Amino acid sequence: xKTLTLIIMLIMSLPMTSNAGKQVSxxxxxxxxxxxxRHASVTPLPDGESYAxxxxxxxxxxxxYKTGKQTRVLFDPATCMxxxxxxxxxxxxxxxxxxILIATNTKYIYRRSFTAEWYIYNTxxxxxxxxxDGGPQQSPVWSPDATQVAFVxxxxxxxxxxxxDNAESQVTKDxxxxxxxxxxxxxxxxxxxxxxxxxxxxxxGSQICWIKYDxxxxxxxxxxxxxxxxxxxxxxxxxxxxxSYKYPKAGHANSRVSAWSYDIKSRKSxxxxxxxxxxxxxxxxxxxxxxxRVLFMTLNRHQDNMRIYDVNPRSTIxxxxxxxxxxxxxxxxxxxxxxxxxxxxxxxxxxxxYRHLYLYNxxxxxxRSVCPASTDITAVYGYDEKTGDIFYQAAPTPMxxxxxxxxxxxxxxxxxxxxxVNDARFSTSLQYYFNTWSDRNxxxxxxxNSRDGKVxxxxxxxxxxxxxxxxxxxxxxxxxxxxxxxxxxxxxYMMKPIGFNPSNRYPVIMHQYSGPAxxxxxxxxxxxxxxxxxxxxxxxxxxGFIVVVIDGRGTGGRGAEFEKCTYLNLGVxxxxxxxxxxxxLGSQPYVxxxxxGIWGWSYGGFNTLMSMSEGRNVFYAGVAVAPPTxxxxxxxxxxxxxxxxxxxxxxxxxxxxxxRAEKLHGKxxxxxxxxxxxxxxxxxxxxxxxxxxxxxxxxxxxxxNRNHSIYGGNTRRHLLRQxxxxxxxxxxxx
Length: 734
Known about the structure:
Layout: H1 2-13, E1 22-23, H2 26-30, E2 43-44, E3 50-54, E4 60-64, E5 70-75, E6 81-82, E7 90-93, E8 99-108, E9 114-122, E10 127-130, E11 138-142, E12 148-153, E13 156-161, E14 167-170, E15 180-182, H3 187-193, E16 199-201, E17 207-214, E18 220-225, E19 241-246, E20 256-263, E21 268-271, E22 281-287, E23 294-299, E24 305-311, E25 318-325, H4 333-336, E26 339-340, E27 344-349, E28 356-361, E29 366-370, E30 376-383, E31 390-395, E32 402-406, E33 412-414, E34 421-426, E35 432-439, E36 442-450, E37 455-460, H5 463-469, E38 472-473, E39 478-483, E40 489-495, E41 506-511, H6 535-542, E42 546-551, H7 559-564, H8 572-586, E43 591-601, H9 603-612, E44 621-625, H10 636-643, H11 650-654, E45 667-673, H12 682-693, E46 699-703, H13 715-731
Parallel strand pairs: 1-38, 6-10, 41-42, 41-43, 43-44, 44-45, 45-46
Antiparallel strand pairs: 2-3, 3-4, 4-5, 7-8, 8-9, 9-10, 11-12, 12-13, 13-14, 15-17, 16-17, 17-20, 18-19, 20-21, 22-23, 23-24, 24-25, 26-27, 27-28, 28-29, 30-31, 31-32, 32-33, 34-35, 35-36, 36-37, 39-40, 40-42
Helix pairs in contact: 8-9
């Protein structure tokens, strides 16, 4: 009997194991084994009944929203006439749906900008012709009647007239690299205002309007490049090369922006009287259905006042129709989610403490609002002027997203049914939409739906991925919350090793991003430190770690007060919340409090360093990838949105990893790409010097010719292996 009892006790003391299958490997992570398919790269067609996308053969094909079935092939490289191309990278449909701009030989410049060799394809005649013979083009736009195309080449605007055998003319001639840019944003406006095209036609196609960026007074940053590999730069085989571009840092000179119009018939350009501060921004421009009206949105440098101007491109007169003044700063979603219809303007604002929707007429008179109580609206889909329906996405809880419609009578209906995260892509008629849904345990399911939410067909359910996942032991992502010593409730998720035994004590790796308005703890398949179903987190679990992610103060989905409480003091509250998390974890019986680590990328790298030097020494190891280390080194728009300038806020800027170098606790690995145009390697070099002078030990890895994302060839595999091995060596694991 005693023997039997001992055997039972022994069995119970052993960790529980699964017979389901294999553990996630690093190869699985970097090779995309758990990459889910999304029905996202689609273009709604003008008819409102169909959409276009690439098929598996590289053709551009039209499909019916109603049936999900193919209706016709719009473009096939094998059957087109005239010019010939082997394949295409992207496309832009004409407003009439009969022509297509097709890109080949795409070469990215920054995050959103690229050059390409563009072609014009006529879907009726099947004729393919070059847009221009003068070299690669940027940001082509159609005229409303699809008879003209404007584009940018080497900072100047050009015009192609299709009715005149694609006759090409030059609109601007003052464009110069690192001096004058016409029709496309400069680096900081592209990166932080999230757009890549700053030109348009008027409604009648008689004029082109654009924004000019004068960056002559902006200071230059130079990145050093080497021969490297994958891709190789043979021109740097013996001596390094340089890449210099204009990058305005916090408190330094911005580009001077101005608005212009060009009369196509008279070939005359005039400056438009858009009131904008000398150091301010034009963050958006929109053509309207009226040829005499183009809308321009401006921001002051503090970004707490956004204005919309109605501008006549012929008379040049501008009339302010909306002024948005809010506490601290205007959220980026206010201009990134704006919708302009024939007669109305639909925009987001957090003026009442949450992100809500406001409907104005074209004269700026408020007609209606959508203000769900204590709920952030997180995306705007459209306004139906015929019915008065407003379609949008909202967060009923911080971790979920649902699709809603508010009818003209004020009644609100939830269209999405499954809990988790739902996103929509509507047809041009707003009669149909794609609903892309997932939760933390289920890869994306995409359905075609009618406007009342009814499912028409399932377009993608990731069945092959779900079957693949069944062969693996993957820990569950457990949602939890706790309250800090300061009385703040924080949301997080936890992943435990397969065979987790609560009687044991495990090392912990915390991951976070922590940047303003961001969210990592969201009930979606993308939830995880490297996305893709938390594959990398699962790999860390297989190495014996508990993985924890917490959204601290400053993150999104919880209203303006929670989001903006970090204003003027980035990193202070965010690092406190990560330390508080570590202290809470250390009180749990299954956590080894002497072996807790933290890591993050970009802003997450910054907050890793802030957390490791917060003063309460709870982190015994950390990894900071591409981190800002002092906000005076970062760009003007982003930094000043949350911090104002170093001249105005010296105390806020003094709270940074460099200033905290002497307080660093734990074994640190810092990684940076040498060609990072976003967070310059200067940040790491200055921080490492501060650590040296503070006599702090650390490891530093520099990746040749790599940008902020640090990828290419074997690079990402190498980086994640270094991160893993660093934690195994410092904290234990296996």
